[in-house]
Design goal:
- The strands form four sheets. The chain has a five-stranded mixed beta sheet with strand order 9-6-10-5-11. Strands 3-12-4 form a three-stranded antiparallel beta sheet, with helices on both faces. A two-stranded parallel ribbon has the order 1-2.
- The chain folds into two domains: 148 residues, D-Maltodextrin-Binding Protein, domain 2 (3-Layer(aba) Sandwich), CATH 3.40.190; 106 residues, 3-Layer(aba) Sandwich (D-Maltodextrin-Binding Protein, domain 2).
- The chain is built from nine helices and twelve strands.
Length: 282
């Protein structure tokens, strides 16, 4: 309904401009709107429950406010919803996804999102309520992994790293599926499920593979991980905006804040081992 009303208003405005014979006014209005979005001093971010939004609020927002920006959060239920809001222009930025997830969203939803800066990242890990070591894995073990494409791939890569499986050498690392498993010596039975529901079902599995944000949200002690992934470039969390805004002053202000000495000092004081920090932010 909102889109319909908006369309009617746009059409009415266009008709009025033509009737008045002012052919240049439309282009001028677009230029003014673009300039306002580039130079604006209010930043609206998609707010999700998790470590990345909290880090943004605790460490980055104060820096932006010192630069004269007003920063407001909009609560969104999940990352897909957050990306739709970002792509539709309802929010300006989010800090909850890696490049692999963003590219999958762009492909699936004809999105126009781009990454403009890496940020500290919490690695995925292997956890268990039944075993104290990855070496204790029994034959026929039940293992839960996330079911969203990019995080499914990263968790299978992690399981290959620890020697549980082998993957097709020719498979795209960012798009690996269960079909790419070429060797499964422990006869692992995999269950792919919504990553947010995995912590509550840990007791039903021998092991679970879960991403850092889910570990954080579930209140799981990250130090209890029996193994962690190697962070690949496409799995590093990013500041994400619409392509048309990537060079905006406010977007660059966010990038500068993550690269600032103030942020580096914050991380030195507040990193208890949870965070993997990209080299350029150290």
């Amino acid at each position: 309904m909102k889109k319909f009303i908006a369309s009617v208003l746009v059409a009415a405005t266009a008709f009025g401009l033509v009737a008045c014979g002012n052919s240049g006014s439309g282009d001028s209005a677009k230029s003014d709107s673009s300039a306002k979005n580039t130079d604006k001093k209010e930043i609206v971010y998609g707010k999700s429950q998790g470590p990345y939004t909290e880090l943004f609020e605790d460490a980055i927002v104060p820096i932006l406010e010192k630069e004269g920006y007003t920063v407001k959060g909009v609560d969104l239920s999940d990352l897909q919803t957050a990306d739709v809001a970002l792509n539709d222009g309802d929010v300006d930025v989010n800090v909850e996804q890696h490049t692999a997830y963003m590219e999958n969203f762009n492909k699936s939803y004809n999105g126009d999102l781009v990454a403009i800066s890496p940020i500290p990242t919490v690695p995925a890990g292997v956890y268990s309520k039944k075993y104290d070591s990855i070496d204790d894995i029994p034959n026929g073990a039940k293992v839960a992994v996330p079911n969203d494409a990019s995080n499914t791939a990263r968790c299978y890569l992690m399981l290959q790293k620890i020697g549980w499986i082998k993957l097709d050498e020719n498979a795209d690392p960012s798009a690996i599926t269960q079909d790419d498993i070429t060797e499964n010596p422990h006869n692992i039975k995999f269950t792919e499920m919504n990553s947010m529901t995995i912590p509550a079902t840990m007791a039903d599995f021998d092991y679970v593979a879960i991403t850092g944000s889910v570990v954080y949200n579930a209140g799981i002690d990250a130090s209890t991980a029996l193994a962690n992934e190697d962070i690949q470039d496409y799995l590093v969390l990013q500041v994400v905006v619409k392509k048309e805004n990537k060079d905006a002053a406010w977007a660059q202000a966010i990038v500068d804040a993550y690269h600032s000495d103030e942020f580096k000092e914050y991380m030195k004081k507040n990193n208890d081992g949870l965070w993997w920090i990209p080299e350029e932010l150290q």
